[in-house]
Amino acid sequence: MKIVICEDDAQQRKFLQSTIVHSSLFQYENVEIALIASNPSEVLAYIQEHRADCFLLDIELQHEINGLELANTIRSKDPFATIVFITTYVEKLRLTFTYKVAALDFIVKNEPDLAENLIDTLHVAYQKHQNIHAQQIEMTFQVKIGEHIKFIPFDDIYCFCTSPIAHKIELKEKSGVYEFFSNLTDIEQQLDNRFFRCHRGYIVNLQHIHKIDSTYRKITMKNGSICHYSYGYKKAFMNALTSTSEIISK
Which CATH superfamily is domain 146-248 in? Predict the structure, then answer.
């Protein structure tokens, strides 16, 4: 979980950083403070290039952009980001409902149990992060490329097809093509119902089919890739397509 802190008071920034780093939360390897910012501009620049999971934002930032406006921008870029507001004035919390940013929690600076409240809230944020991460993994295909494992979202995959190289599969997705050792039978077990085995040599993503040529049993994917469906799969394939729109049949 990557944490971003935005607080214009240097003493408070130091306190927040120290509290987090020395807490039990830091026992987890995937928890880090990605950015400690003194003004919203630093955060805005950061989220243009990077993603963070949890934002601790002071509401009363001495800047042309306040913490609530910053949160609104963060939320528009990432609906799943966790936002925690920190404030000196309890009455300011009412404003958060006006901005409708769905904050996880509100922490008041001058409370005696500030550190405890902060860590409790971050533990909740961490659990939320883990749940989201688990859901995202469930919706991805894992492929080993060299010494690395790549997680490719199902939505990005156009098709799988057998490679001219024996025992290899080609995976065609939005950012390119990957080749790896496997077989379509094993791959089929790892996919959900948006995918269909339409031929002994092809599995297609039904949501990414652009055109079907029934004369030659040819499938054109949205990226231009050409696949085929066999006569034996035809009826089941056409039934699977009934729930899929935006397909041009020839």
Answer: LytTr DNA-binding domain (2.40.50.1020)
- How many Å from the N-terminal Cα to the C-terminal Cα in the chain? 49
Quick one: average pLDDT of 37-56? 93
Q: Rounded to an integer, what distance in angstroms lies between the CA atom of residue 61 and that of residue 12?
A: 12
Q: Return the structure tokens found at 125.
A: 């944020």
CATH 3.40.50.2300 in the chain is located at 2-138
pTM above 0.90, yes or no: no
Alpha carbon distance 97, 249 (integer Å): 49
Q: Give the Å distances, CA to CA, from 85 to 13, 17, 196.
A: 14, 15, 46
CATH 2.40.50.1020 placement within the chain: 146-248
Q: What is the second-level CATH architecture of the domain 2-138?
A: 3-Layer(aba) Sandwich (3.40)
Q: What share of the chain is helix, strand, coil (3-state, %, to 5)?
A: 40, 30, 30
Q: Is the pLDDT of residue 87 over 60?
A: yes
pLDDT in tens, 90-118: 655 555 555 556 677 788 887 888 899 89
